[in-house]
Amino acid sequence: MSLIVHKYGGTSMGSLERIKNVAKRVAKWYAAGHKIVVVPSAMAGETNRLLGMAKDINELADRRELDMLAATGEQVSSALLVIALQNEGIPARSYAGWQLPIRTDKSYTKARIESINGDRITKDLNKGKVVVVTGFQGVDEDGNITTLGRGGSDTSAVAIAAAIKAEECLIFTDVDGVYTTDPRIEPDARRMPFVSFEEMLEMASLGSKVLQIRAVEFAGKYHVPLRVLSSLTDPDMDLEVEKNSGTLITLEENTNMEAAVVSGIAFSRDEAKITLLGVPDNPGVAHSILDPIAQANIDVDMIIQNTSVDGTTDFSFTINRSDFARAREVIEQIVSTIGAREMIADDKIAKVSIVGIGMRSHSGVAAKMFRALSQEGINIMMISTSEIKTSVAIEDKYMELAVRALHKAFELDKEPVKL
Ligand code: ADP
Ligand code: ASP
Ligand code: MG
Fold first, then answer.
1. If residue 223 lies in a helix (H) or strand (E), which one and from where to where?
2. Which domains are delineated in the chain?
3. Whose CA is nearest to atom 9 of ligand 2?
4. Is 174 annotated as a binding residue?
5. What ligand 1 atom has the least distance to the C-alpha of 179?
């Protein structure tokens, strides 16, 4: 008997038929003697629908109220799943984040989990129940409902798995594992049976939405074995086959280590860029631009600064598109105080990245990336690099072309040679 956390995403919970299938799959694991905690997302499209209504009223709606609103999606799907489980004859019970509680900080719309009290979960499991806990949400120390950022149910699942010391956390989704890139963009993408934790962390942080970055961080920090697998297969499929399907995120240097220099392409469509032109080039200028952005709790990603001969500088930075309206408002207020000539705001930016542990020991990888992009006529606006990745910011209309060109240039459709 094992203690296992299952997470089911929006598509997996997308209709009553799908919810009934999730109940059947959970019933199969339960019947095999496992203790199961299930963390569902809201039904597909629901979080967008809810947040869309708020945006239609006010683009800059109060973020506390956005969380109050968005958290309802997971409450609906959790209760429906318990009803479907009970229909299968399985004793089950659902909890909202605040009922456990899942304690977070106060950063509405992107809160971080601080602690989880697993007592109620453990008590119910010991009574033979399946426990369903809403994904995506928590509660701050003053009792306000918070949410964990888009895709946050992955993080809820891994954090719960860590809190109750589960043997494994299974992320059931609408693809059958982690691919070399999003298979919806590149049909020749290849499923990887194993991905190193480090590479998964980079891929997630660079936009691969198959796992939310904080979920991967938690899995690393608390050594939670993590597997990504499909929820769209026959729920009655053989349990032993299912247990070994999908992609395992491996913490150890594994024996199946692939020899590819670049192992995956990540991308994010949700980028925006703000540029200040003609800023007097004095010490402290970067701070005077970015400090108000930090005060507004907006994360900055890429930064570029060019000094011209006339003693002024052009300063650009990228942010997540969901923070665009707020960032623009913040910068508009400081343009004149810092003496900049003008601000240009562009929310049609995408970021494309190549990721691979092998980049550490190989040179010329970035140059190969830039050549592949130039052959497609794609202009690079910004570049950032780390030991195991190179990212470029480009016009978002070229994003899919860039992903496919890079996938081909690095031959990711082909099985890499084993070391
Ligand atoms: P869920 O609702 O189950 O959380 P998401 O839509 O958040 O599912 O994540 C799964 C999606 O991630 C896939 O449908 C796929 O389009 C996308 N994706 C992006 N990059 C990858 C990748 N490298 N491997 C697999 N899927 C990817
Ligand atoms: N429902 C939330 C979202 O759409 C959380 C999740 O699905 O993981 O972002
Ligand atoms: Mg997701």
1. none
2. 3-250 (3.40.1160.10), 264-410 (3.30.2130.10)
3. 150
4. yes
5. 24
